[in-house]
Write a sequence for this structure.
């Protein structure tokens, strides 16, 4: 049987060790609720419930890929450390591009709380945290109903 200890074995290994056996199927779907989803990749969790995400991020015209999620709303981020205890469907989460192009002369525009939340998701998924990109907040944004003093909802 094939198995892999994520973070230990570089590649799946042929093993007689049932402790390394793969256990649950993870099906990755790319798309959106508006445009529909199609199967993008299939992976299997190892005995610890961990998996490897697809190597390439999906692409969708005029959209920015943010992360894989355990729900179509994109609220429950799915990572390689997400423990999988049953066969699971995972969905791509995209956001629409911001107005502007991210330069000092034409910064990305943040108009409201939804834009600010998308910006946070965008910055948190970039290796440089969006360093060197410019954003401009155009309105006062009331976050009292969404976040506490620690920035948590």
């Amino acid at each position: 049987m094939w198995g892999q200890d994520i973070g230990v074995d570089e590649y799946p290994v042929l093993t007689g060790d049932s402790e390394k056996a793969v256990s649950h199927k993870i099906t990755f779907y790319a798309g959106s609720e508006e445009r529909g989803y199609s199967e993008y990749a299939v992976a299997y969790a190892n005995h610890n419930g961990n998996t490897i995400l697809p190597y390439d991020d999906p692409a969708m015209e005029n959209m920015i890929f943010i992360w894989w999620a355990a729900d179509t709303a994109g609220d429950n981020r799915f990572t390689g450390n997400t423990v999988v205890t049953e066969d699971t469907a995972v969905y791509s989460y995209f956001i629409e591009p911001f107005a502007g192009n991210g330069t000092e002369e034409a910064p990305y525009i943040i108009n409201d709380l939804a834009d600010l939340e998308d910006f946070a998701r965008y910055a948190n998924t970039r290796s440089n945290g969006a360093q060197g990109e410019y954003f401009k907040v155009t309105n006062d944004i009331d976050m009292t109903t969404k976040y506490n003093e620690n920035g948590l909802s």
Remarks:
- The first helix runs from residue 113 to 124.
- The CA atoms of residues 29 and 39 lie 4 Å apart.
- The mean pLDDT is 79.
